[in-house]
Amino acid sequence: MVPNSSPKIEHLYVDADARETPLAGRILKKLRGVPVTVVTDKERFLEKTAKLPLSTGKKNLWLTRFKGAFLKPCPATGPDYLCCRYWVINAQSHCPLECTYCILQQYLNVPLITVFVNIENVLAKIDALAAAHPGRLLRMGTGELTDSLALDPVTRLNEDLIRGVAGKKLLLEIKTKTAFVKHLPEVSQGNVLVSWSLNPDRFIRTEEFKSSRLDDRLRAARAVLEKGYRLGFHFDPLLILPGWEKQYATLLRKLTRSVPEKDVLWISLGSLRFPPSLKKTLAARFPKSLITSAEFVKGLDGKMRYFRPARTDLYRKVYGMLREKWKDVFVYFCMENKTVWRDVMGSSPEDNAHLDYLFHESVARRFPDLALPAPRRENYPAGD
Length: 384
Hints:
The protein has 384 residues and is of the alpha/beta class. It has helices at 22-30, 42-49, 54-57, 104-107, 122-132, 152-155, 157-164, 201-207, 214-226, 244-258, 278-285, 308-325, 338-345, 352-366, and strands at 11-15, 36-39, 60-64, 71-73, 87-89, 92-93, 98-99, 113-116, 138-141, 170-176, 192-197, 208-209, 230-238, 264-271, 273-274, 296-298, 304-306, 330-333. The chain has one domain (68-106, 119-379): pyruvate-formate lyase- activating enzyme. It contains 14 helices and 18 strands.
């Protein structure tokens, strides 16, 4: 069943040290009626909940403080695959959606959906980062360790960030597989985009459980345009499943008929990749999934990937179909090597810094209303 509202939370756990924060108070008020447990022994609580099945953990919400840095560089997978130097806002971890390929099944050791309620200083961190790099276009988002909008109607985590970055020379990305956009505030500055991870409906039904259908995602994209947001789309992971070429052709036709290219900041392409240990978890949790039935090879980053000839064929066809419709939108690969870039697009960024610069160049050229500083290659040195 495809949800039309945020997934239901069955129990709320609140760290005693965190319950007086404004965000915790807001969530408690929104979830009034849901059983609440105040946790006084955090270490024992986490030891106990670590044993919960993931499917159970996804129905429970854990409110606590985050002791680390909320704003971090995207965790690139080594020098062999190009990374765009995106910044991640870690305000929540785990996700109520059930995508078969999700790496969080292996990555996180707390199965509860966790909201870090002490995020009041994140805007100051963003301002400090921007001040340290005045000539760059900083891109950041909340969707690395969770779906940005799956629980946002309850938590409203993104709302303060959206208003806080208004008018600043940076881009905030809200990434989702849902259609939960009614609660988002209207914006006028155009430096916030809502982006959707897209797959054909057939693959959504078999591999992206509890997420929204394709048509609902595209309707939501049109809705946020009316509120002043811009758009991004992520074909990641692209899946080699029976009939994939026809399925992606239909998807691209629907996308390009649904929203105007002029409002899309970027599109990413990335094929299925996963740590070897995920295969066992996937077989246990989703025995009907077919995504690991293709041929894979271990990449230089230790992740299983489609063989390069198969990846290249997949990318060439999807990229070719996209370029038949949209000629100008910025398209990039997520975590691919230079050989694949050259084989599919005819050229490759020199390094991560060059790819970062190319984002700035594209956005400055296509969206002059943002009044960005002129893109200069010297502002994007390698190695930092």
